[in-house]
Amino acid sequence: MKNCDVVIVSDVTNAPSCEPDMALEKFCECSDRHFEGRRKCPHSLHTTGVIYDLLECLSGFLSKFGFANIPICFISPVAQASLAHANIYSEWLNSSKQAKVYLPEPPFVHSNMMKMNSLFVYNHIHGRFSDTYKSPSIIFTGHPSLRFGPAVHFVEFWGKSENNSIIFIESDFSSVDAMKPFSNCKMKVFNCPIDTRLTYTQLAKILKDLSCQKVIVARHMMKVASQLKSSDSQMSASGSICDLKCITALGRAESCEVDDSVDFENVKIDYNLAKKCKLETLDSKKTSAIALVGEFQLNNHRATIRDVVLDKVPDRQVPKPFLWGDISVDQLLKELRLREVLDVKVEKYVGSKTSGKNDRMITIGKVADDPECIVILGEDYTNVVGCKTEATRKKIRDSIVACLNKL
Predict the structure, then answer these.
(1) Contact criterion met (CB below 8 Å) for 167 and 43
(2) Which residues are within 8 A (CB) of 80 and not within 5 positions of it... i.e. 6 or more apart?
(3) What angle, 0 to 180 degrees and rounded to 10, lies between the N-to-C axes of helices 20-35 and 51-64?
């Protein structure tokens, strides 16, 4: 992300309750305390994000303390797709997990856990879950607010026993507020918020190191950063996002322009096609170009041009030659005469302020006040104006094409 064009910051934290590693350790301790004498343990969380790390951490923890036979259930309509996609987006993984992607080994442990029947994935709590559920167990499900989702069912059904526990790990939801509707709930409640968001100090340091062209943040974040800078002398010395000149703050219903145009893209040329490439000089300045005819493929933001057999390609898909060069007035008149266009008059074109000294206007027709067609030749343009017949237009087109080089 160094020297990137645009960075969009969605959320940061002002004062995290604890570091993610400490929260993860507390999460495992709560699970250990639960299985020493209790049976069922639902975890209230979102179905993406930190769930992958929790499964990996919990798997090693259970094996270490002799609870490897306890099943883990993941219940969500997108659970199967979420776990499957985690194995293929290698560009977002750390170096150790990226290395596993290119080996016959999945980067996350949840694939092996599903093969060994220690992790079970369900779309909902009906049907297959009811038939295969075993106790004791660990349940990962949502919603963290306990206002909807399968988590509500488990709290109502298992909340009657003190042998069961519920662990809250989402930092955006209060366990006290979530449990208020369940006044008669007897299950143990543990709060282990895992907040992986950056702090304002960390964000300022990262953005400074990245040297971004533009950073887009929410307007309220700038207010909080300004208050922290004025009250915290350490932050004032280390830097704040308020000091960055590339910051753009947006409020609700506001928008800004983001320039996503790219001048050049890297394209890989197939080896067989590259062998056929020949450089052609375009002008006296020794500018060279290569004409490529192939199949353009775009996969995972990587472009490739592969060799094709033109005989197998439909005529409508075969590209036309690229025309280039300057049009000589004398050569154009010669080509027009070859096509029996004889009534031609050439004069200097002064139709606009941007007209060049060498711009010419060619009038075709016997009557000067009512010509059949007008051709304007400029330094970097050619315009054909007001052809009265299709036959005349085609003759002029063929004459202009004959004057140009083909690539």
Answers:
(1) yes
(2) 121, 123
(3) 50
Which of 281, 354, 358, 356 shows the shortest CA–CA distance to 324? Answer: 281
Question: Distance between CA 375 and CA 386 in Å, rounded?
Answer: 9
- Find out whether 242 and 229 touch, Cβ atoms under 8 Å: yes
Within 36-169, where are the H helices?
Answer: 51-64, 79-86, 95-101, 110-115, 128-132, 150-158
DSSP per-residue letters across 214-234:
EEEEEHHHHHHHHHHHHH-HH
**One-letter identity of residue 194:** I
Radius of gyration of the chain (CA): 35
- What are the pLDDT tens digits along the chain (407 aa)? 777 888 888 888 776 656 666 776 777 766 666 555 545 566 555 555 677 778 888 888 777 777 778 888 888 888 888 787 776 666 667 777 777 767 777 777 788 888 888 888 888 888 788 777 777 788 888 888 888 888 888 888 888 888 888 888 887 788 888 888 888 888 888 887 777 788 888 888 888 888 888 888 888 888 888 887 777 665 555 677 777 788 888 888 888 888 777 778 889 999 888 888 887 777 666 777 887 888 888 887 788 998 887 777 776 566 677 787 788 888 888 888 888 888 888 888 776 655 567 788 888 887 767 788 888 888 778 888 878 888 888 888 888 888 888 77
pTM: 0.54
Question: At residue 326, what is the residue type?
Answer: D
